[in-house]
Amino acid sequence: MTKDEDAPTSKKQKQNTAPAAAQQRPTPTPKPPNRKLLFVAVPPIPRPAGVTLSSSPLRSFSIMTFNILAQCLVRRELFPYCTKSDLRVKHRFPLIVDDITQKYKPDIACLQEVDGFEDLLAPNLVQAGYDWVYLKKNPEKQGGHGLCIAWKKDKFSKQKYQSVFYDESTFTHPTPVTPVTNNIGQILGLRFHEAAADGAVDQGTARNSVGIVVTNTHLYWRPPAQYEKLRQAYVLLEEAVKFRREMEHEQDMEEGMSEERGRKWPLLLCGDWNSVPSDGVYRTLTKQPLTDIHIDKLNPVPLVVKTTPADRAPPAESSETAHDAAITPEDAGPPLENPLPPPLLISRMSALPRLHSCYATYRATDPSHTVNPDWKDGHGSGNETLWDGEPTYTNFTEWKGTLDYIFVAEESEQERAVDVGPRRQQTFVVVDNVLEIPREEYLQPGIPNQHFPSDHVPLMAGIGLYEEVV
User: Fold this and answer.
1) In 10 A of CB 159, how many CB atoms?
2) Where are the alpha helices (H) located in 26-177, listed in sequence order?
3) For 79-119, what is each residue's pLDDT tens digit?
4) Coil, strand, or helix at residue 452?
5) Which residues of 8-21 are buried (b: 16+ CB within 10 A; e: fewer)?
6) What angle do CA 131, 405, 127 make, to 5 degrees?
7) Which residue pairs from 85-94 have beta carbons closer than 8 angstroms and sit at least 24 positions apart in sequence?
8) Can you tell me the distance from the alpha carbon of 382 to that of 386, in angstroms, rounded to the nearest whole number?
9) What is the distance between the alpha carbons of residues 410 and 318, in angstroms, rounded to a whole number?
């Protein structure tokens, strides 16, 4: 894809077209059928050769990622295809709550662009039996939005939590080539309650205790800033690996382990990654080959040059920093000295776990999945191959594409190198099912609409945790 093809339309462009669009009331979209959980046809996570898994899972759970579209980012001109009622909080919010607490009921929900949390969302989570951790994007700012991880209290207990402020990291601290982003992440350790899936009760030993680490993030939005997104992803993944190692060690100490060690805690990473599957960011995270074009786009660019009609960015997010400039190749200017050049960053990423997307084989699971309508118009040449089996959209506005993922991390060589002593008992992650992606006819000309409350659709995966049969 070219740069103009792989990024959403800008606020400025939409302002130029909004008055005409606003004069024509959108035709109501048909009511969609209930979204189904689809059995995964092709496993998105490869099983190690020679490994036989137990016939039944140690534990099973569902996990959702959902950018719910912060009300503070909603502007009429950004969604010219919407009716006014589609954008009002009194219409959108009940649908959001219903999706989370009534319709899909995930055991874990990772939410992005959450505002009005204490007044609106928290009471509904309490009523539905969830606990949570919430982190504002800019804690000192009045209002604004942030991230939330919610989990069912009858299934998990919180063991440990860490907030990640990317601008404070030594690897992403603002420099002459990197912006102040206010982007954030969350890392959470959850332990399953002792009751097992078959109704039995564990004995409470570390070898039987099962836990998971979950992260939630919303990466920097500006389309040309792939370098900054990759740096943020690097910080989150490195911190999450350290966090998991600490959790496992604390579990050993808690259970008084000496000769033996407890189970490995699976690591799942959710969020709005603001990267499509053909980007160098996604391909680096999933350990796929990078072309010269990918590497070139991972070079940092100047922060602000000038505003240009060619600027194309996610509509809601662009309203936060609409005064910043778009950066086009002809504007980029001479290269800037970079303390962490892309080759070094990519090398460091290679030492961290490979990520597997739970939806990486979605198009094999759902052959009826609608191809991205933008591709039909000739804007997606080659995308069908580059995007592999990922959905062709999770964000459906005037720009359409896949930005949201539920990743599972596999153990890296670096982790094995530092994990001295007796080997931990491995816990294998199997993706059993995924929530289907709505068909195009229920989303056109764009969302939010009367049935879908956000410009993103929620993703959800059913996960089973298995042990190896020796």
Assistant:
1) 17
2) 84-87, 89-98, 122-127
3) 999 999 999 999 999 999 999 999 999 999 999 999 999 99
4) coil
5) bbbbbbbeeebeeb
6) 20
7) 85/450, 86/448, 86/449, 86/450, 87/448, 89/116, 89/120, 91/450, 91/453, 92/448, 92/453, 92/454, 93/120, 93/453
8) 6
9) 34
DSSP structure class, residue 175? B
Closest CA to 408 of 232, 229, 270, 276: 270
Name the pLDDT band for 237 (thresholds 50, 70, 90): very high
Is pLDDT at 386 greater than 60 in this prediction? yes
- The whole-number average pLDDT for the span 53-66 is 94
Whether the CB-CB separation of 72 and 117 falls below 8 Å is answered with no
Residue type, 432: D
Measure the CA–CA gap between 110 and 149, rounded to whole angstroms.
5
Distance of alpha carbon 190 from alpha carbon 465, whole angstroms: 14
Chain centre to alpha carbon of residue 164: 15
Angstrom distance (rounded) from CA 384 to CA 382: 6
Q: What is the dihedral of CA 145, 147, 152, 155, to 10 degrees?
A: -170
The rounded distance, in Å, linking the Cα atoms of 308 and 329 is 12
Which amino acid does the sequence have at 31?
K
Which is higher by pLDDT, 305 or 432? 432
Predicted pLDDT of residue 341: 82
Tens of pLDDT along 261-313?
A: 678 899 999 999 999 999 999 999 999 999 999 999 998 876 554 433 333 45
DSSP 405: E
Rounded CA gap, 75 and 68, in Å?
A: 15
Compute the CA torsion angle 179, 291, 357, 109 (nearest 10 deg).
Answer: 10
Question: What pLDDT sits at residue 458?
Answer: 98
H or E element, residue 237: helix 226-255
Q: For residues 339-376, b (16+ Cβ closer than 10 Å) or e, as one string?
A: ebbbeebbebbeebbbbbbbbbbbbebbeebbebbbbe
Q: Residues 401, 393: contact at Cβ < 8 Å?
A: yes
Structure tokens at 269: 């990473």
**Residues 352-376: pLDDT tens digits?**
999 999 999 999 999 999 989 888 6
The whole-angstrom separation of Cα 248 and Cα 254 is: 10
Summarize the confidence of residues 231-236 as an average pLDDT: 95
Phi/psi of residue 181, nearest 5 degrees: -110, -25
Quote the CA–CA distance of 406 and 357 in Å, as a whole number. 6
**Model-level pTM?**
0.86
Residue-level length of the chain: 470
